[in-house]
Amino acid sequence: MILIGPLRSTALLAKQAASLDVLSGGRLVLGLGLGARHDDYRTAGVDHRRRGRDLAQQLVRLRLLWEGELPGPRPVQPDGPRLLVGGLGGPAYVRMARYSDGFVHNGGPPRAFAAAAARARAAWIDAGRPGRPQLWGQAYWALGDGAEVERGRDELRRYYAFARGHAEQIAAGCLTTPQAIKDLVRAYEDEGCDELVLFPTRPALEQLERLADALGGPG
Questions:
Q1: In this structure, what DSSP letter does residue 22 have?
Q2: What residue ranges do the domains of the chain occupy?
Q3: Rounded mean pLDDT of the chain?
Q4: Which residues contact 98 (CB under 8 A, 6 or more apart)?
Q5: CB-based burial of residue 179 (10 Å sphere; 0-12 exposed, 13-18 middle, 19+ buried)?
Q6: Who contacts 82 (Cβ-Cβ below 8 Å, separation ≥6)?
Q7: Residue 69 class from Cβ within 10 Å (0-12 exposed, 13-18 middle, 19+ buried)?
């Protein structure tokens, strides 16, 4: 849902996003952030110290490319795909309010989303933007028996191992029952979330079938 913007060529990203916007009939929403792994920057040969400044410049440049400077396919959406910005530090909210259409929260309980959403709305007002920002959230889930659930949690521990102790906290927050998923969806909606993206932790089609059953059933 969130790409690490500074690791990518802005011109190439603009062309790729424009192509996806055409293929999707103008439905692309592009989320950008800084990422949390220093080794990503080392591997890409990108200066980690400039990442915030680079992302702000990239957000401006993307709009300019989509509005007239881009060779190749033109986006279906007049100003280009909607842009969302992720991140929890003060500068992230400023970038979001100045250069994008909305904010993506990094996940967690509804109260954490509510606090981040309040900061996003405040930054939007401070920037003099009309209306309000789009607010997106995300959550991880794994449904099934105990072994399947634990495999899903293990995948989160592995993926977030760089975060050390925080990895266990993320794994513990994985939604593992239909009722937990329903409760989280309702709570995020109550806090003003416009779109909630649910990420499976197990690459299996039956996981999607279980999610559909969980969200479509009574309760």
A1: H
A2: 1-104, 139-219
A3: 94
A4: 56, 127
A5: exposed
A6: 28, 29, 30, 101, 102, 134
A7: exposed
Residues 5-41 pLDDT 10s: 999 999 999 999 999 999 999 999 999 999 988 899 9
What is the layout of strands, in order, in the sheet containing 29-33? 2-4, 29-33, 82-86, 102-104, 134-141, 195-200
Q: What is the pLDDT of residue 69?
A: 75
pLDDT at 163: 87
Read off the pTM.
0.92
Q: Would you say 19 and 59 are in contact if contact means Cβ atoms under 8 Å apart? A: no
- What is the structure's pLDDT at 146? 93
The tokens describing 22, both together, are 């055409």
CA dist., res. 202 & res. 141, Å (int): 9
Tallying the residues shown for the chain, one arrives at 219
The distance in angstroms from the start CA to the end CA of the chain is 28
